[in-house]
Amino acid sequence: MQARTLVPNALAVAATGVLGGLASRPAQSAWYASLKKPPYQPPRQAFPIVWPILYADIATVSASTIDELDDRGDTGARRSYIAALTANLVLNASWSWLFFTKRWLGTSAIAAGVLAVSSADLTRRAAAVRGRRAAPLALYPLWCAFAAVLSTHIWFLNRRS
After folding, report:
1. Segment-wise mean pLDDT, segments of 10 residues, the chain, 161 residues
2. How far is residue 75 from each of residues 72, 86, 126, 152, measured CA to CA in Å?
3. How far is CA 29 from CA 129, 145, 147, in A?
4. 3-class DSSP state for residue 2?
5. Could you tell me which residues come within 8 angstroms of residue 14 by beta carbon, excluding any fewer than 6 positions away?
6. Whole-model pTM above 0.90?
7. Cα 46–chain centre separation
């Protein structure tokens, strides 16, 4: 993997993490504490462990995928992958803003579902290029699918009749 590919990918992923983290600060608010949550809600300490691992996977697998597409001379697929990655990172950072800042539980549940689909598509694209070497990225759509279920359940538990 080349530094000229890894560095911009890592910076984009880090920016996503920072933006999402800024929006997640209300996770320690009275509003968040007052929400009804399902029994399978992970402890708060799980998120700062899981997300850096996923972000590292996204950055490294994506950089390797882009490098491979460069080596193949497949500029169309390279552009398409970068567009899918960019859209995915925007969706990723947006969820925290929708949930914690705007407190739009329904909208954030839908956004989590879209993020899970986008993450699965990104993984599919990487696997088509890198094969088994893209396997670490498969954790990302799995976590996003779990987040979509969790977000939807929190929305359901906190709906106003």
Report:
1. 92 94 76 94 90 96 97 97 98 94 95 98 98 96 97 95 48
2. 8, 16, 15, 38
3. 43, 25, 20
4. coil
5. 55, 59
6. yes
7. 15
Tokens 């992958």 belong to 81
**Residues contacting 11, CB < 8 A, separation 6+:** none
SS (H, E, C) 29-94: CHHHHHCCCCCCCCCHHHHHHHHHHHHHHHHHHHHHHHHHHHHHCCHHHHHHHHHHHHHHHHHHHH
The tokens describing 128, both together, are 């088509």
d(CA 47, CA 35): 18
Which token pair is 99?
A: 């949930």
Distance between start and end Cα atoms, the chain: 53
How many residues are recorded in the chain? Answer: 161
> What stretch of H or E contains 24?
helix 3-24
